[in-house]
């Protein structure tokens, strides 16, 4: 390969590098933070779902499910990945 062929690939490599640092890397970081937030859910945490429902975690179940109390005596089962935000955390119970 001569230098002109290499010079043609340099802009493509630069564009990919810029795309990686501006789009791909921040998205991966955001996904990791969301997974960490969902893994730290506990009973009593007040959460917001993707559908805009605000409720309190009643029980963290297996299979990535959470029981959320949205009104007194009204509980819904929600998939953990649909929880977008934790409004207030409860303190861990002292043993």
Total domain units: 1
CATH structural fold name? SH3 type barrels
Radius of gyration: 22 Å
What is the approximate shape? rod-shaped
Task: Classify the oligomer.
Answer: single chain
CATH class: Mainly Beta
Written overview of the protein:
The protein has 95 residues and is α+β, with helices and mostly antiparallel strands. The protein has one domain (3-88): SH3 type barrels (Roll), CATH 2.30.30. It has one helix and five strands. A five-stranded antiparallel beta sheet has the order 4-3-2-1-5. The chain crosses the membrane at residues 6-24. Part of the SecDF-YidC-YajC translocase complex. The SecDF-YidC-YajC translocase forms a supercomplex with SecYEG, called the holo-translocon (HTL). This is Sec translocon accessory complex subunit YajC. It comes from Salipiger aestuarii. One of its GO terms (cellular component) is plasma membrane.
Set down the secondary structure blueprint.
Elements: H1 3-39, E1 46-49, E2 54-60, E3 65-71, E4 74-79, E5 83-88
Antiparallel strand pairs: 1-2, 1-5, 2-3, 3-4
